[in-house]
Specification:
single chain; alpha/beta; Helicase, Ruva Protein, domain 3; 10 helices
Length: about 270
């Protein structure tokens, strides 16, 4: 079965790496697992029978049909022919906060998938194979060229770890880029209330839309913030932040603290 470029398909054919990824997930007989984009079933073959329940979400018509036929009669394996971005992940499980997610996801929609999976209530763990550049952006330290809104958005709600690198030669067809596996473990309980997360998203989006500007100008002049000059000065004095710095100098925890200072009663 040929890979479809329109769906960003590249199939993992290296058996050793397949086993390493499944081992990194650490799913056992008591776990429910959601696998995104199982494709030809490279990871599925290692998970089926090893976990209590396995849900496969595959968009490709032919692949979804083939997986459904292969696992027909195995009640613990559920095949959903669906776009993961339309999937109501929490409804897949009676205990969505215990769900484990694994997948080799299309590189062209990596960020939307990551943030879709991080909607509340969040899974226990998310293990994704992504383009290596995206993995670097997720785990990038403040001040680095790769650090930005993706790092802040993910790491204010979860712990992250780069688990292993995957060379392009491990796939068929061979993609033009290398890959990496990242682990995302949402904080449980969440560190922020929903309203705090919404305020943080607004601040983060504004900051990195204007990432080449100083934070004081972003707070004053970005249309989503528009703080009076005197309020910005008071915030700087109260917080100890240096608002002549650009956004990439602010850590995820700094963004959390600053967003809380922007609360109406903060």
């Amino acid at each position: 079965m040929r890979a479809k470029r329109s769906l960003g398909q590249n199939f993992l054919v290296d058996g050793n790496l397949q086993r390493k990824i499944v081992s990194a997930l650490g799913a056992g007989p008591a776990d429910e697992v959601l696998e995104i984009g199982p494709g030809r079933g490279a990871l599925t073959a290692h998970l089926a029978g090893a976990v209590r329940r396995l849900v496969l979400v595959e968009l490709d018509d032919a692949l979804a049909s083939e997986l459904a036929e292969r696992y027909r009669g195995r009640d613990h394996v559920v095949v959903l022919h669906q776009d993961v971005l339309t999937l109501d992940v929490p409804r897949l499980s009676r205990a969505p906060h215990e769900l484990k997610v694994v997948g080799n996801i299309p590189y062209n929609i990596t960020t939307p998938i990551v943030f879709h999976l991080l909607e509340r209530p969040r899974p226990a763990e998310i293990l994704l194979m992504v383009q290596r550049e995206v993995a670097e952006r997720i785990v990038a330290p403040p001040g680095s060229s790769a650090y930005g809104a993706l790092a802040v958005g993910v790491r204010t709600v979860a712990r992250t770890e780069r688990v292993l690198d995957v060379p392009r030669t491990a796939f068929r067809p061979v993609p033009r880029v290398d890959s990496a596996v990242v682990r995302i473990v949402p904080f449980d309980p969440p560190r922020l209330q929903p309203a705090e997360e919404a305020r943080l998203r607004t601040l983060t989006r504004a900051a990195f839309q204007w990432r080449r500007k100083q934070m004081q100008k972003i707070l004053r002049d970005h249309p989503d913030l528009s703080l009076p000059r005197e309020r910005v000065a008071a915030l700087e004095a109260e917080s100890g932040f240096v608002f002549t710095d650009r956004p990439e100098r602010f850590s995820p925890d700094d963004f959390v603290r600053l967003s809380r200072l922007l609360e109406p009663d903060g």
